[in-house]
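RECORD TYPE: inverse folding
INPUT: structure tokens
STRUCTURE:
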């Protein structure tokens, strides 16, 4: 009898609460972005997929892929790939403006931003351990849920009296082979260094990118440590 009780206690929720043995170093996470503007009842929905290996992260939307590589010196190198053209533009870490915080790329919200929020509650355990946070900034309220052991954003909602925007996780997978294959596919695209684009204006793809204005602000780094990346994707929609 004692052995059975001992076994039951070993399998108790407490024993597994802190652990998640999923291969979380490799993640494919699908998100839906919903924006509502109160005044004209405008409702838009977009989707993107976050792909992660231990030192690379990519945010893929229907038009292009923003990929970030964490280099050995902790610098971050961005590459922007365009699936339709199977082409890419590579930036040097020195061409990226603004403070670069790897956690904000990897998790969509930085460690610093999470630390600034108020922890409300935790639910679940193991891989499903979910932490809930809130923050009020003037008229805007931010509500966030976070899969702590997977370092994965579950949802974030920013709302003001006139506007709300939510990014919500719809599915996630941890198939290492599939994820590595996706990064390998992009790696095979023909890339051009950002610095060389001016010399290649006869290239129809690059000429088009310059016209669309993709190139100039491509290196601006579209996340910051305050979590402002969630306020709007300026310059991403043309």
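DESIGNED SEQUENCE:
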């Amino acid at each position: 009898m004692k052995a059975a009780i001992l076994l039951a206690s070993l399998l108790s929720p407490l024993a597994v609460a802190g652990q998640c043995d999923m291969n979380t170093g490799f993640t494919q996470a699908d998100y839906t972005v919903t924006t509502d503007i109160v005044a004209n009842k405008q409702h838009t929905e977009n989707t993107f997929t976050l792909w992660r290996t231990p030192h690379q992260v990519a945010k893929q939307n229907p038009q292009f892929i923003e990929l970030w590589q964490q280099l050995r010196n902790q610098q971050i190198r961005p590459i922007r790939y365009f699936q339709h053209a199977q082409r890419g533009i590579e930036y040097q870490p020195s061409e990226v403006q603004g403070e670069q915080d790897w956690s904000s790329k990897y998790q969509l919200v930085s460690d610093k931003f999470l630390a600034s929020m108020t922890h409300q509650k935790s639910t679940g355990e193991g891989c499903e351990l979910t932490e809930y946070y809130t923050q009020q900034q003037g008229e805007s309220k931010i509500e966030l849920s976070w899969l702590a052991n997977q370092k994965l954003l579950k949802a974030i909602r920013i709302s003001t009296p006139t506007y709300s925007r939510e990014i919500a996780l719809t599915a996630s997978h941890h198939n290492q082979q599939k994820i590595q294959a996706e990064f390998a596919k992009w790696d095979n695209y023909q890339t051009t260094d950002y610095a060389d684009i001016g010399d290649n204006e006869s290239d129809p793809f690059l000429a088009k990118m310059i016209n669309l204005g993709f190139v100039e602000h491509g290196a601006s780094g579209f996340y910051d440590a305050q979590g402002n990346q969630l306020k709007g994707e300026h310059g991403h929609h043309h």
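NOTES: The CA atoms of residues 179 and 211 lie 32 Å apart.
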